[in-house]
Amino acid sequence: MLVLSRQVNESIVIGEDIVLTVLAIEGDQVKLGINAPRQIPVLRKELWQAIREQNTIAEKIETQTGNEAMNALRQFLVDDATSAKE
Predict the structure, then answer these.
(1) Which of 43, 51, 70, 85 has the fewest CB atoms within 10 Å of its CB?
(2) In whole angstroms, what is the distance from residue 74 CA to residue 77 CA?
(3) What is this structure's pTM?
(4) What is the pLDDT of residues 33-83, one digit of tens each?
(5) Is 24 in the same domain as 54?
(6) HSE of 39, CA atoms in CB hemisphere, 13 A
């Protein structure tokens, strides 16, 4: 992992199309501005992970039929509830 230090109003360039700018630092929060082409999705990591998990579930269910699909969905929900408690 590359670690860079930036001050307010300083930027980091990723590739040729993406610019991250530090807009403000307030206590333990850093506000970032992201300038990227529209075709590049920019998501918070937790949202990206949730979408990825949902896509994985959909793929599993799509390849199964009837009871297998229901059992796969039940198992996912049990696993998800268990991991939420941890």
Answers:
(1) 85
(2) 5
(3) 0.63
(4) 999 999 999 999 999 998 998 888 777 777 766 677 777 777 777 877 777
(5) no
(6) 1
Domain assignment of residue 71, given as a range: 45-85
Task: Tell me if residue 52 falls in helix, strand or coil.
Answer: helix
Task: Please give the span between the terminal C-alpha atoms of the chain, in angstroms, as a whole number.
Answer: 27
Place of tokens 């980091």: 12
Residues 50 and 75 in one domain: yes
Which residues, including other chains, have CB under 8 Å from residue 76's CB and lie 6 or more apart?
A: 57, 60
Q: How far apart are CA 86 and CA 68, in angstroms?
A: 27
Query: Closest by alpha carbon to 30, among 49, 50, 12?
Result: 12
Question: Partners of 11 in the beta sheet?
Answer: 21
3-state class (DSSP) for residue 7: coil
Helical ranges in the chain per DSSP H = 45-62, 66-85
